[in-house]
Amino acid sequence: MKTINVAVIGVGVVGKSVVEILQQNQDIISARTGVKIVPKIGIVRNTKNKNMDIPLSTNINDALDDNEIDIIVELMGGIELPYKIAVKALTNKKSFVTANKAMLAYYRHELEFIAKESSIGFEASVCGGIPIVKALRDGLCANHILSIRGIMNGTSNYILTQMNNNNTDFKDALKQAQKLGYAEADPTLDINGSDSAHKLLILASLAYGINAKVEDIIIEGIEELSLDDIWFAAEHEYVIKLLGIAKKKNHELELRVHLCMIPKDSMLAKTDGAMNAISVVGDKVGESVYYGAGAGGNETASSVVSDIMEIVRSKTSPMLGYVSDFNNSLEQNMMLMPRDKVSSCYYLRLMVDDKSGVLSIVTNVLAKHNISIQSFIQRKTKELGDKFALLLFSTYVCSEVQVQKAMLDLENINEVTQKPFMIRIENI
After folding, report:
1. What is the pLDDT of residues 51-79, one digit of tens each?
2. Contact at 8 Å (CB) between 404 and 258?
3. 156-209 tens-digit pLDDT
4. Which of these is catalytic: 94, 199, 241, 248?
5. Cα of 100 vs its chain's centroid, Å
6. CA proximity to 21, closest of 311, 313, 308
7. Is 199 a catalytic site residue?
8. DSSP E strands, 102-221
């Protein structure tokens, strides 16, 4: 039986699980591929205290320059160094597998161009154990994708679940997530929306062939969410989730990551804890929903090994699923929608001085920007005392530019005592 040798660069939690799966499940892997896949070497920062039964090295070139290595698996994280590793691996005609969504968010199209004689696997880069990459590239490949909406970050979803279900404030929910290992000591990329944005950009390339960058799209996090917002959402039969959204409108594509109020009976609203879920709507298949663990050593490693097996079994195929330049064809010509053209219903929270005439000032500002109010609640709490009140609004559909200009004007009103806060309402 032919042997395929694999090098794992970055033998942390996921890397160790990849090695274990290749060794412990070798029988079924060989039966499905017809070859013996062997982890030949692991590349680590420090070889001390690494209890592994494969050779370890701190020199990346021990993997890249070894002619017996067929597949490089990159699990180290970061952007620039992993990209250089990918380029060298592909130049050396080795196949390349990665779970690195940050690097792919910037360099996925460059790598596809380089990979003429080698394959690239990246299933594990989006939502861990959920096979969403293969679903878009293969299972739904005969469809025009009308929309993608997804809970793509388990850390933020755990925090929002605690806030939605248990009335836990943001800081305490974050501490719980860190204690349970769902959040890092520095959770910035998870809670500010960046992690979800990296994943959304990868999915957008698969679904639409578009090469958008992180800087091109709306990205907002969950840091400013309060229990008052949770209360307003519940009063209106909504649940608040952090969503990555891609929506096709004619030949323009909306790409955005932010908090959304979504109907409480929707499938995404019922996705709780650290789980992920992605809804995809195709023009022929309709809606399909993919649910599962978005992170974890074994879950992510399962996707990595799946990519290794697919590379072994198949011929070289286009990384992002397009043999020809679909995005630049005359009938497609998909363009990223400018941020200002995005439209939605919106929720606004204002803390104001509790005195007569303030509501009139606020509504006049909204009217100035042609924003119509759908519902309004004035809320008093013990924490606010007698001097302040919360004004909570939902609007009818208006554009992003209208809301952003109104928010700036509202912030400059003397009677508004905190920076106004906004959540988009996504009626899925």
Report:
1. 788 999 999 999 999 999 999 999 998 99
2. no
3. 999 999 999 999 999 999 999 999 888 888 999 999 999 999 999 999 999 998
4. 199
5. 12
6. 308
7. yes
8. 120-121, 145-151, 218-219
